[in-house]
């Protein structure tokens, strides 16, 4: 049911012209990065502070209006689609860095601050926020989806790097979770509950984040391998040897074609590649690189190319991050069925090989990339919009990947999250009793089920 004029009037009393029902604004906030589709929301709100978010939720809760939080809109599993209509709350005008405490190595930010904007603000301090999911995502969205990315092998995910939150609950109450202390054993960990809740329990309006010192020296390298198995085996052996990597990424031949396209030059052969980065003192970087080079040689790696210059490194990682959009250009007009899984390191070579075999057998054109240092990899399967047979094949491959991950003690998603795309897999991973516990938490905090309904937790009415 569309939002009534009475409710819109109440919302306008809070927001004025920062409530939009315009077609273009609704369409922009009804789009998805991947093949997931839904009608646009009924309206879009642009709050500028916590009090406005609280007022919005009080109104929507009283009238049973669905509320969907929105950051930069870069999620991949349909997290921010208004599948039941309702109001999208765009938080990108809440974009202030509220406090930087170098002596405590933390920053306090509003949810609309992006990771790049925060790191720009931090340059003069000698500190950085390292979590890098690829897209220049908002930090509120990164917390809501428990994002990680290329540096997770060294710095962990948002779960390890969010110290405290301010959250507006479904009924408009504002709570604070966590502290500025490095650790706490006082009560339930509500911060961890909210990180990864995908907007189903409340809206994050403030984050306290852990910061790190900028490394003294950084060096990156690219190397090619004859086969996918040799490349991924090299990763597993590197991690088992304890070589401290800042990043280690796997790219299949099609992904390397996309990187060449993004760079505008045929720089790398279309073979399986690893992209790696070492950080630390110059001596430690040199020693780590030499140890890694020996593992590469054992696995028949070739074309070992160093990028110690900052601009060269930035171009390399920018091309890696752009591989999704560049890959779409390899099949003009295509959309992507994107998925990820995470498995124990010992199972990584077999999981990647099985996914590649499934794609080849089905004749699906796509790439495989991965933050493989922690057993996490992604597939992008390029399909024709509206081609139900192709989409069905791609979704079947994604399900088989998830099932294989669960069979070896892995997870259906290492970082993309659940949204609507993996909702039907949640019971497979967690079982009925654990799902019932999640449902109980959802109903306790959001009894009217207005917070991003139809996402993350199956079976909530």
From TrEMBL:
GO biological process: lactate catabolic process
InterPro entries associated with the record: FAD-bd_oxidored_4_C (IPR004113), FAD-bd_PCMH (IPR016166), FAD-bd_PCMH-like_sf (IPR036318), FAD-bd_PCMH_sub2 (IPR016169), FAD-linked_Oxase-like_C (IPR016164), Oxid_FAD_bind_N (IPR006094), Vanillyl_alc_oxidase_C-sub2 (IPR016171)
Keywords, sorted A to Z: FAD, Flavoprotein, Oxidoreductase, Transit peptide
Coiled coil: none
Cofactor list: FAD
Family stated for the protein in its record: Belongs to the FAD-binding oxidoreductase/transferase type 4 family.
Name of this chain's protein: D-lactate dehydrogenase (cytochrome)
Organism: Paracoccus solventivorans
């Amino acid at each position: 049911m569309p939002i009534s004029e009475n409710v819109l009037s109440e919302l306008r009393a809070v927001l004025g012209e920062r409530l939009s029902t315009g077609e273009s604004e609704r369409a922009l906030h009804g789009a998805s990065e991947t093949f997931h589709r839904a009608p646009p929301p009924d309206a879009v709100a642009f709050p500028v502070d916590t009090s406005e978010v609280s007022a919005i939720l009080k109104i929507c809760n009283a009238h049973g209006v669905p509320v969907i939080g929105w950051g930069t809109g870069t999620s991949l599993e349909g997290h921010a689609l208004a599948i039941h209509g309702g109001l999208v709350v765009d938080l990108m005008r809440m974009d202030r860095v509220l406090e930087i405490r170098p002596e405590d190595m933390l920053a306090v930010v509003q949810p609309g601050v992006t990771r790049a904007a925060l790191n720009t603000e931090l340059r003069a301090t000698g500190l950085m926020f390292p979590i890098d999911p690829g897209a220049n995502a908002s930090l509120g969205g990164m917390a809501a989806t428990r994002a990680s990315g290329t540096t997770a092998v060294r710095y962990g995910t948002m779960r390890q790097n969010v110290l405290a939150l301010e959250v507006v609950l479904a009924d408009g109450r504002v709570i604070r979770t966590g502290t500025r202390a490095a650790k706490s054993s006082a009560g339930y960990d509500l911060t961890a509950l909210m990180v990864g809740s995908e907007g189903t329990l409340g809206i994050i309006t403030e984050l306290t984040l852990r910061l790190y010192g900028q490394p003294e020296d950084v060096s990156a390298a690219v190397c090619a391998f004859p086969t996918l198995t040799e490349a991924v085996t090299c990763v597993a052996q590197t991690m088992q040897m304890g070589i401290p990597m800042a990043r280690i990424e796997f790219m299949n031949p099609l992904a390397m074609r996309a990187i060449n396209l993004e760079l505008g030059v045929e720089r790398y052969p279309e073979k399986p590649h690893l992209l790696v980065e070492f950080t630390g003192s110059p001596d430690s970087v040199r020693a780590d690189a030499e140890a890694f080079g020996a593992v590469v040689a054992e696995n028949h790696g070739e074309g070992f190319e160093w990028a110690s210059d900052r601009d060269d490194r930035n171009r390399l990682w920018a091309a890696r991050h752009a591989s999704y959009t560049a890959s779409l250009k390899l099949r003009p007009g295509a959309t992507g069925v994107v998925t990820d899984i995470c498995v124990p390191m010992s199972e990584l070579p077999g999981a990647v090989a099985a996914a590649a075999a499934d794609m080849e057998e089905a004749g699906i054109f796509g790439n495989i990339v991965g933050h493989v240092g922690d057993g996490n990899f992604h597939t992008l399967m390029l399909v024709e919009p509206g081609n139900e047979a192709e989409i069905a094949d791609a979704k079947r491959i994604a399900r088989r990947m998830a099932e294989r991950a669960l069979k070896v003690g892995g997870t259906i998603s290492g970082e993309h999250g659940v949204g609507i795309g993996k909702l039907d897999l949640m019971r497979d991973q967690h079982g009925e009793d654990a799902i019932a516990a999640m449902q109980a938490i959802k109903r306790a905090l959001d009894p009217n089920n207005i917070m991003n309904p139809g996402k993350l937790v199956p079976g909530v009415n």
